Amino acid sequence: MNKHKQLHLILLGAPGAGKGTQAVRLSAKLGLAHIASGDLFRQEQASGSELGKVAKSYMEKGLLVPDEITVKMVLGRMRNPDCEGGCILDGFPRTLEQARSLDEAMAKEDKKISQVLYIKVSNEELLRRLSQRWICRNCQAPYNVVEMPPKAHGRCDHCGGELYQRPDDTEETARKRLEVYFNQTMPLIEYYRKAGKLVEVDGEQSIDAVEKDLVKVIESGAGA
Ligand code: AMP
């Protein structure tokens, strides 16, 4: 595929903002690979790899995995053939260092980030959502057990996998993750705003309405 037709999107927002939910929908709609750094780390943990063990020690405390490890993992994943037409990055980058490394690595291949879609949600709403979130052990699909429960109790609608509450979604760790987000990830909003790539979407609407806004923004090419 002509690399100028590639679409590289970043979904930016706090834990619980709905990045994963929207990334799954956009990926199906636009035919783009969905790369979620948190999912990649959870898969590494499930496989018992060394990388998984290192990641776990940070994740269980609500802290970020070091940049060097994270950047290497995500850039490696972006080289897979399913990313030829571009990809949707969900949960990456999360620090300025990661954002700069991503820009540099892409520039070397004459590629660039097309748009950064910032899904904005208030702090109180984020904590409420995280405490109600359960995910599929198999395909990682997220559910809100109060507002968006699965059809069959404890089972994923998509693959029938077992649902569980992430250990880092408990209140104490969720609070820590939000603090980490405000300190380490929020500066990316300014970074991408200055680059003319940031577009903000109200993440407190219904899931369908947020998706509609995101699709509108992507189709209009705003920020690209
Ligand atoms: P998530 O599933 O995106 O909420 O990520 C879960 C956890 O994985 C985070 O709290 C971090 O410990 C780790 N993680 C995921 N993405 C990154 C990233 N881009 N940089 C550093 N750590 C990450």
Write the layout of secondary structure elements.
Blueprint: E1 7-12, H1 19-30, E2 33-36, H2 37-47, H3 50-59, H4 67-78, E3 86-90, H5 96-108, E4 115-120, H6 123-131, E5 133-136, E6 142-144, E7 163-164, H7 171-185, H8 187-194, E8 198-202, H9 207-220
Parallel strand pairs: 1-3, 1-4, 2-3, 4-8
Antiparallel strand pairs: 5-6, 5-7
Briefly characterize the structure.
With 224 residues, the protein is an alpha/beta fold. It contains nine helices and eight strands.
Task: Name some characteristics of this structure.
224 residues; Rossmann fold; five-stranded parallel beta sheet; 9 helices; 8 strands; 46% helix; binds adenosine monophosphate
What does this 3D model show about the protein?
- By secondary structure, the protein is an alpha/beta fold.
- The chain has a domain at 7-122 and 181-220: P-loop containing nucleotide triphosphate hydrolases (Rossmann fold).
- Helix content is 46%, strand content 16%.
- It is built from nine helices and eight strands.
- The protein has a five-stranded parallel sheet, sandwiched between helices. Strands 6-5-7 form a three-stranded antiparallel sheet.
- Helix 4 (67-78) runs parallel beside helix 5 (96-108) and helix 6 (123-131) crosses helix 7 (171-185).
- The model has no long low-confidence stretch (mean pLDDT 94).
- It binds adenosine monophosphate.
- Adenosine monophosphate binds at residues 15, 37-38, 41, 58-59, 62-65, 70, 91-94, 98, 168, 177.
